[in-house]
Write a structure and sequence with these properties.
By secondary structure, this protein is α+β, with helices and mostly antiparallel strands. It has a domain at 47-115: 2-Layer Sandwich (NE0471 N-terminal domain-like), CATH 3.30.2020. It has 3 helices and 5 strands; from the N terminus they run αβββαββα. It has a 3-stranded antiparallel β-sheet. It has a two-stranded antiparallel ribbon with strand order 4-5. The protein is globular.
Length: 119
């Protein structure tokens, strides 16, 4: 019988982060930064849908209601992302953990996508 610890689910991780953000005493920790002066936890922005548009563009809808078309070619370099330069591979995207992912393990943080301009 294996004694390996199970990897936490996305929901478990999100619940832990929310608990930390709503605990004001944790904000005094030098590695924990208060989200704002109002002491309200920030919304965790997630990608809720993605649709292929053309080229390396995807139309994304975020949990805060914002929808935009993002050009992904700026990220298609490096060991993990280079394979996605083949459009056939790029089009294999899916949503997991609140962001856009690909079968080869590539993903981009939802905060990065939300902040990206629509170039």
């Amino acid at each position: 019988m294996s004694s390996r610890k199970q990897k936490p689910t996305d929901d478990e991780i999100e619940a832990e982060v929310r608990a930390d953000l709503t605990n004001p005493s944790a904000w005094d920790d030098p590695i924990c930064v208060a989200p704002s002066t109002s002491r309200r936890p920030p919304s965790i922005v997630r990608v809720v849908s993605a649709e292929y548009v053309s080229g390396y563009k995807l139309r994304l809808r975020f949990s805060d209601g914002v929808e935009k078309v993002i050009e992904f070619s700026r990220w298609l370099h490096g060991e993990v992302f280079q394979p996605l330069a083949a459009k056939r591979e790029f089009k294999r995207f899916f949503i997991s953990g609140g962001t856009v992912c690909w079968p080869n393990g590539a993903d981009i943080a939802p905060e990065t996508l939300r902040a990206a301009d629509n170039r």
